[in-house]
């Protein structure tokens, strides 16, 4: 207070003056401690960055920036970590702040210009490169980057001009160089994606659109477009994933939610149908694929898929005529589909039309020469065709290939009674009846024996001497291991009906 009197200050003012002195002393102590901490964070950040531990380094640089918001170097170093992490958008504000604090900081200017150039922001990039060259006219990197920025500006104008003229191929050619210079520019990729869509190449459009979901904040439009592209290609799981990403950004987005409901419903039906097939519940799978066609009648892929799988299911449940009709319709829709040709070939085999089965398998092999199923199916169809030209046991008894044992025995009884040689008088008729009777008995033996029937269905005649171990010999086709006709005409036939 004595000092206040000497200076002529009033009591209140003197008290405030003394308080400020005390605060200055305390603040000096705090700042001193903070400086030590900041140096520690900077040193730790440097070491962790050198060790490649980017997340840990970033944490220390955050602390350094918070401790001293006026130090341009802390912002610059934190920007370096962001760039090392591939987060160029996060690095830009730090570089800008470093330049504000130190306008002649050329390293930050050059780094920011490089980022802006890669983002396709040509004018601002040129401003940074020119600022570097004003202070350092011989700076080679700044000179090279300025040339690139001018080239990019011209290419961008050329690409947009070609696009507006409808020359999408030329636009794509120009944009290849544009994207080479500015790989982080979402607009160029979106423009090229649109060109690919217009030229009928959705896969390349997807390749361009995918990175734009990261290059733009809240890029719901890109997620929706990606979902639609995958949907039209029949990639319903990918479509569902992308539309969910859109809804994560805004669950109330009407366009995304509307498409989400459609994709979710269709995807559930498709997965359910394939699940039924895996569980051998083919009729339920057919019903579900019918629902698929009603849910999405406008995208050809899903109708074609449904027709193909219905064809497959009808073969699985052994309905040859229905299968042939369904497979033929599917084949008309997708003539180069090897699976449809394979399934129709199997339907023809069920219908005992082996020539057509061979033709379908041969055509299927042209479209898929590496498929073991098709190769093995062709070999089996060719064997069956060869056998059918000799003896087809199904045709002999007049039964379908999927006939059960009871149906086979019933057909055998009827034909055995009809063609019993004792029913005929003349020698010529009796000989013809003997031949038919042997064939009927042979057919019954093969088709009622599971092992022999399996061999026959695989294209091998178990009663053909050529297929017997040790070669020919013996009476071909007589199932009871002797020929009663060799014992003379007075023999009376007795046979079992079971």
From TrEMBL:
Assigned GO CC terms: endoplasmic reticulum
Keywords: Disulfide bond, Endoplasmic reticulum, Repeat, Signal, TPR repeat, Unfolded protein response
Biased composition (Basic and acidic residues): 449-458
Region forming the signal peptide: 1-32
Domain J: 392-460
Subcellular localization, as worded in the UniProt entry: Endoplasmic reticulum
Pfam families: ANAPC3, DnaJ, TPR_16
Domain of life from the UniProt record: Eukaryota
Record InterPro entries: DnaJ_C3_Co-chaperones, DnaJ_domain, J_dom_sf, TPR-like_helical_dom_sf, TPR_rpt
Chain residue ranges for the region called Disordered: 449-483
Annotated protein name in UniProt: DnaJ homolog subfamily C member 3
GO terms for biological process, alphabetical: protein folding in endoplasmic reticulum; response to unfolded protein
Segments annotated as TPR repeats: 72-105, 338-371
Location (main, coarse): endoplasmic reticulum
Gene Ontology terms for molecular function: misfolded protein binding; protein-folding chaperone binding
């Amino acid at each position: 207070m004595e000092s206040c009197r000497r200076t002529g200050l009033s009591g209140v003012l003197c008290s405030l003056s003394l308080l400020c002195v005390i605060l200055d002393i305390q603040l000096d102590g705090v700042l001193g401690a903070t400086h030590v901490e900041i140096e520690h964070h900077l040193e730790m950040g440097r070491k962790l960055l050198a060790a490649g531990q980017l997340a840990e380094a970033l944490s220390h640089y955050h602390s350094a920036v918070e401790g001293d918001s006026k130090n341009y170097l802390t912002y610059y170093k934190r920007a370096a970590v962001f760039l090392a992490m591939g987060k160029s958008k996060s690095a830009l504000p730090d570089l800008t702040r470093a330049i504000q604090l130190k306008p002649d900081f050329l390293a930050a200017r050059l780094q920011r210009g490089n980022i802006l150039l890669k983002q396709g922001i040509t004018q601002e990039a040129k401003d940074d490169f020119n600022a570097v060259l004003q202070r350092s006219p011989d700076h080679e990197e700044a000179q090279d980057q300025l040339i690139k920025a001018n080239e990019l500006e011209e290419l961008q104008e050329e690409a947009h001009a070609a696009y507006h003229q409808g020359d999408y191929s030329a636009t794509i050619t120009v944009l290849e160089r544009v994207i080479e210079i500015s790989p982080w520019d979402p607009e160029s990729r979106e423009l090229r994606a649109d060109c690919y869509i217009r030229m009928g190449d959705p896969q390349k459009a997807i390749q361009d659109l995918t990175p734009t979901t990261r290059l733009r904040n809240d890029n719901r439009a890109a997620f929706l477009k990606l979902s639609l592209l995958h949907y039209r290609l029949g990639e319903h799981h990918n479509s569902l994933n992308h539309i969910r990403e859109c809804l994560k950004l805004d669950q109330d987005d009407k366009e995304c939610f509307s498409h989400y409901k459609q994709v979710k419903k269709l995807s559930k039906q498709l997965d359910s149908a394939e699940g039924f097939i895996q569980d051998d519940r083919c009729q339920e799978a057919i019903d579900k694929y019918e629902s698929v066609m009603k849910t999405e009648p406008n995208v050809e892929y899903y109708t074609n898929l449904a027709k193909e799988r219905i064809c497959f299911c009808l073969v699985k449940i052994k309905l040859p005529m229905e299968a042939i009709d369904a497979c033929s319709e599917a084949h008309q829709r997708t003539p180069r589909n090897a699976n449809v040709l394979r399934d129709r070939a199997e339907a023809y085999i069920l219908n005992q039309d082996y020539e057509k089965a061979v033709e379908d398998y041969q055509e299927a092999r042209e479209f898929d020469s590496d498929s073991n199923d098709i190769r093995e199916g062709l070999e089996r169809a060719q064997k069956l065709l060869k056998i059918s030209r000799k003896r087809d046991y199904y045709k002999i008894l007049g039964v379908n290939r999927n006939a059960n044992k009871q149906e086979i025995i019933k057909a055998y009884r009827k034909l055995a009674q009809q063609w019993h040689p004792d029913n005929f008088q003349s020698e010529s008729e009796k000989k013809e009846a003997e031949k038919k009777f042997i064939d009927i008995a042979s057919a019954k033996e093969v088709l009622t024996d599971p092992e022999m029937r399996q061999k026959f269905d695989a294209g091998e005649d178990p009663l053909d001497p050529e297929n017997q171990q040790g070669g020919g010999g013996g009476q071909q086709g007589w199932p009871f291991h002797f020929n009663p006709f060799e014992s003379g005409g007075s023999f009376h036939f007795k046979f079992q009906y079971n």
